[in-house]
Amino acid sequence: MITPSRTPGYRKNPRLTASFELNGFWLTGDVARRDPEGNSCHLDRTVDVIGTSGGPVYSLPIEEVLIADCADVVRDCAVIGVPGPDGHAQVPIAVVQPQDGASPDGLLEKGGKELSAAGLATLAAVEVVQDFPRASPSSSPPARSTAATAPGWTWSASPHPRSAGRGSACAPAPAGS
Known about the structure:
Layout: H1 14-19, E1 21-22, E2 25-26, E3 30-34, E4 39-45, E5 50-52, E6 55-57, H2 59-69, E7 74-83, E8 90-98, H3 107-117, E9 125-128, E10 147-150, E11 153-156, E12 170-172
Parallel strand pairs: 8-9
Antiparallel strand pairs: 1-2, 3-4, 4-12, 5-6, 7-8, 10-11
InterPro entries: AMP-bd_C_sf, ANL_N_sf, ATP-dep_AMP-bd_enzyme
GO molecular function: acid-thiol ligase activity
Organism: Actinoplanes italicus
């Protein structure tokens, strides 16, 4: 991205600033695609992409399906990568905050069917939490530093809003782009 309103860099950290600049462009870390109709679809942030043995898996589309198609059970969720059985590649799991009074029993199976129907990667496991760490509206986003623990793994909350409005991440491309 080149714009006069972008940050001049990280304060007192020229090395980190240099890692986000390339030939005058500021690398945002967003992964997106454009469909044939010209719509842009935000897939994920590069720091959140799960490196599986079958290729990259984007967490945001999986989260959207779980929140939309399993809304009777899922209040909120985060899809993260954890070490797989081979110790090298990751496998995706969902950390789920259930709806009040809902039982997450069978969510792995139901979620798997919905994800398969949408052409997305299936989950290796579902972990249940009562709440997610959240930044207060007056503070800075956690930027992956607010950690919570799922049994056996440590994961960080994403710095970007997930499924804002619980709709699709796809939006018409801006004019002239």
